[in-house]
Amino acid sequence: MNEVKISTEFIKLDSFLKWCGAASLGSEAKIYILDEMVKVNGEICTQRGKKIRQGDVVEFNGEKYKVI
């Protein structure tokens, strides 16, 4: 599992995908989310603006990213 540190209270899901390197562009992240390819804490998430906080686990493309 990859650990990704954020320095704010939360980060939006689409921004998180760019921050951790899973998506290179915001438009790319949006497509992944809308195509139900992203899970947050084990559940498919289609909300681009979902607030990701410390302790959350984001799954995408076979990788898991834990927010610390």
Report what the structure shows.
The protein is of the alpha+beta class and 68 residues long. It has one domain: Roll (Structural Genomics Hypothetical 15.5 Kd Protein In mrcA-pckA Intergenic Region, Chain A). Helix content is 24%, strand content 34%. It contains 2 helices and 7 strands. The chain has helices spanning 13-19, 26-34, and strands at residues 2-4, 10-12, 38-40, 43-44, 51-53, 57-60, 63-67. The strands form 2 sheets. Strands 1-7-6-3-4 form a 5-stranded mixed sheet, with no helix packed on it. The N and C termini lie close together (12 Å). The model has no long low-confidence stretch (mean pLDDT 96).
Keywords, separated by commas or semicolons:
single chain, 68 residues, alpha+beta, Structural Genomics Hypothetical 15.5 Kd Protein In mrcA-pckA Intergenic Region, Chain A, five-stranded mixed beta sheet, two-stranded antiparallel ribbon, 7 strands, 34% strand, RNA-bd_S4-rel_YaaA, S4 domain-containing protein YaaA, RNA-binding, RNA binding
